[in-house]
Amino acid sequence: MSFIRGASSDPIAASVSGGATITSGSTTVFTHVPPRSIANGAANFTNEASLLATEVDIFTYVKVPGVDEPYYVVNPITRALQKIGQGTTGTATYYMLHYRLSMLSGILAVPNGSGQNTGELLIGYPSTLVGTDVATETGRMKLRMYLGSVLYRRENVMVLPDIAFNGVKEFHAFKLNAAAGTDTNFEDDLDMSKANGAPVRFKYDGGNGNRSGGRNNVVDAAATISSNAASMTRKEIRDRLDESRPLIYQGSLYKASTTASSGFVKVLSNTGHLGCIDSPECIDKIAGVNVYSAYPTPLAVGTAH
């Protein structure tokens, strides 16, 4: 943002440059990234709280086939495949994955001009303080300026929630017990064993704080994979399911392969919100606009001539 001072009686004109222009029109998009938190390490940062950021919960399920071999999912914190469980011969096992993601919102606004009068930036002119230090024979002048904004026409501004990834806050994987295959635990009596990749939704528990009996025990135990030091209990995960009432889509699942160049082959593909994001190829996108590679890039050293 640059400021241009006109005549002494005129307001300061501020022009905003840069941004990305949408090819299908004249709309310009600017990206605001909040301050970073490196609690999970510099390579796995998340952005701190912002008025344009919210946290959302996404759930997926995977079916581990009844084959005695290990199966893997992508851990969004480490951005690498992690073993979720061992298949049991003749018996399919279901797991539910929970992602708590930080999401950024967008602002769509009509710029000033043509009588729109959407809003303006307000500036408090500098307050000047002068201090001197006799011992060091130095002086210091402090300038302080205040910026604010005012919106005159609210109808000219629209907030678009949750349009960009801003990092991962939590990740958990839960093993589901045999009740996951009982249709009475799900809306429309469509359980995971019958869904064939379609989304499912648990029936509402009606605020049963004890989570005891019947469908309340669909979650087998505490999380088998957890991004936190303290693993979530099954009561905590069922509370979140009741609060958000999510559709639970099929997630991506992998197994080891001796023929694939990557050493793994995909068994199931994501059919919901994340798309290809929960795959090794796309998981970096979940870190937002600033992405670090999970592995260092080898440096090619040539011969000097």
Overview of this protein structure:
The protein is mainly β and 305 residues long. Helices cover 5% and strands 39% of the residues. The strands form six sheets. The chain has a five-stranded mixed β-sheet with strand order 14-13-10-7-15, with helices on one face. The chain has a four-stranded antiparallel β-sheet with strand order 9-8-16-17, with no helix packed on it. A two-stranded antiparallel ribbon has the order 1-2. Strand 3 and strand 4 form a beta hairpin. The chain is elongated and about 80 Å long. The two termini are 46 Å apart.
Which key terms come to mind for this protein?
single chain, 305 residues, mainly beta, 4-stranded antiparallel sheet, 2 helices, 17 strands
Set out the fold topology.
Elements: E1 2-4, E2 13-15, E3 20-21, E4 28-29, E5 36-37, E6 46-47, E7 53-64, E8 70-75, E9 80-86, E10 93-109, E11 119-133, E12 138-151, E13 157-176, H1 192-195, E14 225-226, H2 234-244, E15 249-250, E16 253-256, E17 264-268
Parallel strand pairs: 7-15
Antiparallel strand pairs: 1-2, 3-4, 5-6, 7-10, 8-9, 8-16, 10-13, 11-12, 13-14, 16-17
